[in-house]
Amino acid sequence: MNDAEFTEDVKKYGDMLFRLAYSCTGNMSVCDDIVQETFIKYYRLGKDFDSEEVKKAWLIRVTINSCHNHTRFWWHSRRSELTENESAHEHGDSDELIALRDALQKLRPIYREVIHLYYYEGFTTGQIAKMLRVSTSAITSRLQRGREILKKYLE
User: Fold this and answer.
1) What does the pLDDT read at residue 83?
2) Does residue 131 contact residue 54 with C-beta atoms inside 8 Å?
3) Which pLDDT value is given to residue 148?
4) What kind and span of H or E run contains 97?
5) CB under 8 Å to 48, separation ≥6 — which residues?
6) For the chain, which terminal residue's Cβ has fewer other Cβ atoms within 10 angstroms, N or C?
7) CB 99 within 8 A of CB 154
């Protein structure tokens, strides 16, 4: 992989990985760090993947792992983002959208990441199963359970 290919991949996948990191962590201030860490690992790996799908799956998996590592530390859960809802209102987000984001952040990460990949990124259950290295039925179950919990939070 040369620098031009790397730059192209950052442009191509950066926004998607940022949205995924935000969905997993719920904290915009750490999303840049997580995405940057993912791309550093990708650059250091320096290998060509068999296909774009394999490369994309690898980037998503590394981003999710970085998110899990971030949320694993106890002091991250003690911090709070005081201005996130205020800035959401300033950007014109509706109350419904803010309520949905808040409800998504209450979900356990295994439900939140699957819902994000399915609804926001448009992956199929089979593709998500490959990325997360679990069975398709596990992904289907996580989607169903995540929807049920999300519905309860939104009522």
Assistant:
1) 44
2) no
3) 93
4) helix 95-106
5) 1
6) C
7) yes
